[in-house]
Structure formats: structure tokens, C-alpha cells
Amino acid sequence: MEGLLDHSLRDALTRVGGVDRCVSEFIRVTGTLLPCRAFERVVPELRNGSRTAAGVPVRAQLLGSDAVCLAENAARLAEMGSAGIDLNFGCPAKTVNQHRGGAVLLDEPETVAQIVSAVRRAVPAHVPVSAKMRLGFNDDSRAEECALAIEGAGATELVVHARTKAHGYRPPAYWERIADLRALVQLPLIANGEIWTVADALRCRELSGCVDLMIGRGMVSDPGLGLAIQAHDAGQREAGLPRTAPWGTLLPLLLQFWHRVGLHVAARHRAGRLKQWLNYLRRSYPQAQQAFDDVRLMHDPAQVEQWLQQALQTEAKVQSKDC
After folding, report:
1. CA dist list (Å): 109 to 94, 136, 143
2. DSSP string for 144-164
3. Per-residue confidence (pLDDT) for residue 323, from 0 to 100
4. What is the CATH number of the domain that holds 257?
5. Is 172 found in the same domain as 280?
6. What pLDDT was estimated at residue 232?
7. Domain presence at residue 2
8. Which of 17, 167, 190, 315 to pair with 121, CA 20 to 30 A apart?
9. Can you tell me the distance from the alpha carbon of 305 to that of 144, in angstroms, rounded to the nearest whole number?
10. In-domain check, residue 241
11. In a domain, 1, yes or no
């Protein structure tokens, strides 16, 4: 999720819990072997055993169409200790697709197979090689062909975003089409797309036949969603557990996120990153709406810092009164 779910947000979300594995934003590969610093800029977790501070493994994701070059970069990532290599055949961005990356390759199953095969051969057998695809580019007529190509080329597992590039991010997600793919391939399938709540997760599982789920925007909007799904699976859905992480637990994470952003984002863009996350959190938290309104016109990092500190102090007073 380029421009949104970077290492700063991965750090915050995995601290909440309920996440088994992360995949990085895509690293574009175009005809060159990237230096280690380029990978560490996108996946700084590589310096921590390819894990977030909370201990969650992170796979580096590559995007491109040159099988040889992708394989060379995958080999370097494996040497750096990446928890796995993920290949992006799902990005719907127009600029990416115009340069033969992401979902446009779903019209070329043979190219998809060549890429997966080359990467699989380039990295040690113990390093997982996964792929993510949409149902297709303009339509889903070649979804089965692409899934079979990915399996035949030796992928470890396949994530399927249950929409085509033409669908973009418009609801609904066509989870039942993932079930069609499951009937053909033997490799593990992971369902993705339009999972915002526990109810969505259960419905996705029912229609796709997948147990495992990849959640993106839903976790950004509700950081406790993974924990809530795990609680349901453990039979605790009647135990009065919250559907979301309490707002009071998120405020310290917002501050940590803000400080991490300050280490790698130019001052003029920092406030925008906080507003971006608050904009998603508004979907699950009424407090986030008020927070978004408070900082909407702020641009000075010092002013944002002051607001966050005051918000934490106010929340602490509320919590002490409740006790």
C-alpha cells in the first residue's frame, strides 16, 4: 500500500497485535540491481532480522516485469535476511501499469510464470516466495490461468485481491471467485479485499473458502481488527471483548508513529501523514473525527506535537477519573 502502510505504520499496527506477517510496500525494479540501502529505506526491518519491533516478520515485495532483474534483486534481499520475497501482480495504479508493473501483467500469464520461476530459482529453498494478484486487469477471464501459472512456477502461496484492476477499490469484492481458484490450485490461498469488520472476515471466509486473510485498509481503520478476529476464532466472541482497540491505547501509538515519521519524512509533509491515518481511523472511532478536525489545518510539526501531547494528557485525566 504505497504511500500509506509504510514501516512507520507497520510498527504501530503490529504493536497492537493480531498480525501474523506483514508485506512491505512494493519496491520497483527496473533494469538494475538495487543497493542494500535502497531496500533498507523501504524495509528498515531488515536491520532487525526482518521483523518489526513487535517481532512480526516482514516480507519485502518486488514489482516489475524483468524476470532476470527481479531474480537478482530477490537474491540480494534473501542475502540480507528478508523473511520472504513477495511479488506484486496486483497494483492498479495507472503509472505502474503503463510501465508494465502490477496488475497489467495479469494479461500475460506466461510473463507472470517466468517471473515467479526466476525468483524461486534465485533464492534458497527455505525462503518463501509468495505472490499477490487481482482477479485480472479489465476482467477476470484469465484469473484461473494466472493462478495456475503462479502455482506451476513454484510459488509458496498466493494472495488474491478479489477485484480486477478495472474495479479499483470500489465495493464489492468478489470473494466467491477466490473459491473458483481454490478448486484448481493446491498452493495455499489467502483472501484479500474489502475486509473492514469481523463480520466481513467471516463472510469472506465463507465465500472464498480461505481461512487466512490479508487485511490492509481495514487494519489501518481499525487497528484492533486482527485481535478481534483472533478472539472470535478462539471462541471469545461472547466475552465482551471490544471490536476495536480502545482510543486511549491508540493515542500513544499515534505519538510513536508521529515521531517515527519525523525521522524520514520532510517537515512539510509530516502533518499530512498523521492526517492520513486519522482520516482512516474516523471510520471506527468518533474520537478520530474530532482529532482530525483539530489538526486539519495544522502544518507546523511543532504545533502537531503540542496537540498530541495535550491529547495524551487529556486522555490520561479521563482514564484516572474512570478508575
Report:
1. 20, 10, 9
2. HHHHHHHHHTT-SEEEEESS-
3. 56
4. 1.20.225.30
5. no
6. 92
7. no
8. 190
9. 50
10. no
11. no
Same domain for 140 and 186: yes
Provide the whole-model pTM: 0.93
Looking at the structure, do residues 84 and 213 belong to the same domain, yes or no? yes
Predicted confidence at residue 245, as pLDDT, reads 81
Domain count of the chain? 2
Beta carbons of 25 and 49 less than 8 angstroms apart: no
* Contact (CB, 8 A) for 211 and 177: no
In a domain, 242, yes or no: no
Alpha-carbon dihedral angle through residues 182, 184, 186, 192, given to the nearest 10 degrees: -30
pLDDT digits (tens, 9 = 90+) for 14-41: 999 999 999 999 999 999 999 999 999 9
260-298 in b/e form (b: 16+ CB < 10 A) is: bbbeebeeeebbebbbebbebbbebbebbeebbeebeeb
Tell me, what amino acid is at 22?
A: C
Please tell me which residue in 22, 91, 146, 204 is annotated as part of the active site. Answer: 91
Which stretches of the chain score pLDDT less than 70? Answer: 1-2, 237-244, 320, 322-323
| 91 is annotated as an active-site residue | yes
- Domain extent, residue 273, equals 247-322
What sign results for the dihedral spanned by CA atoms 65, 62, 197, 282? negative
Q: Supply the pLDDT for residue 14.
A: 97
Is the Cα dihedral 291, 297, 300, 303 positive or negative?
negative
Q: Which runs of E-coded beta strand occur in 66-138?
A: 85-89, 129-134
